[in-house]
Specification:
Shape: globular
Structural class: alpha/beta
Order of helices and strands: EHHEEEHEHEEHEEEEEHEHEEEEEEEHEE
Helix content: 10-25%
Strand content: 25-35%
Number of strands: 22
InterPro entries: Capsule_synth_CapA, CW_Biosynth-Accessory, Metallo-depent_PP-like
CATH superfamily: Metallo-dependent phosphatases
Family: Belongs to the CapA family.
Protein name: PGA_cap domain-containing protein
Pfam families: PGA_cap
Length: about 325
Amino acid sequence: MQPMTLALTGDVMLGRLVDESVIRNHALPPETVWGDVCPLLLGADLLLINLECVISDRGREWRPDSKAFHFRADPRAIEVLRAAEIDGVTLANNHVLDYGPEALRDCLERLDAAGIQHTGAGTTLAQALEPMYLATSSGTVTVIGLTDNEPEWEATDRTAGVHFIRYGTGGLIEPYRERLSRLIRSARQRAQLVILSAHVGPNWGSPSRAMQALAHDLIDLGADLYWGHSNHTPQGIELYRHRAILYAAGDFVDDYAVDPAERNDLSFLFVAELEQGRVAQIRLVPVAIDEFRVRLAKGTERTFLERTMERKCAAFGTPVRWRQGQGTILV
């Protein structure tokens, strides 16, 4: 595999106010959502996001009386994804079935029609488990999506849902461990780089012992990179067996209320630089959510991100080198 860049984001939620104010405002071009970060997204050889909503104009709210938030974006959101030339989206999360199987099926069809690959959810268990294979001039990258959210959404042979897993302080619990082992082995036969996309854990707080055990287990099973999300703020990066574990990439685009201490409106674009079939280093590009779109962070925002990320990485013994407003982690 020749040198190339792989850009990863945290949660991209295009529903609610993002949908109303930006996506369905046809006076604004689709790339508006990506702000001045768009050139960096377009410059990556591969770009992957966690899509924290369903893209459809169909379906009904899953459980409006008990589930607090339901996220759905207008079909024009497909143009928003295409404007950034997004190669693939992970769908194993707690919002992809907010509007039921009909909306999920519609979303999958729209992604397919746009040539945007996906993993982690499907109309059957087989489709939810299917990795996405991204062919590049330097080799094939594969991504497997999974989540521990919404157990009732676990896909079966007959019902739509997500690639759901269970784990504890010892890592994956059977039969999920054996299934992931088979998936990773199969992916390895077709790809030079295997990425595990994990939407796991709570919205806040540092990674638990069980989450760390899960990440280690997946690396032990053969994954080259662990790409976590679900937490609203970016968490520390651990280097384990010469592989990088991104415990949580934070929020990238949304309309959420901002916690003044946690600053969930601040995160990073994570750019993995691949050399000789492995992740050689990860660049951290500070970003901020502003008016329902993302932009490059500045001033005190960057200072906050540098200090908090350096502290969180230090908990795993991972040094971060900061230069010209960006961080670098050597793997």
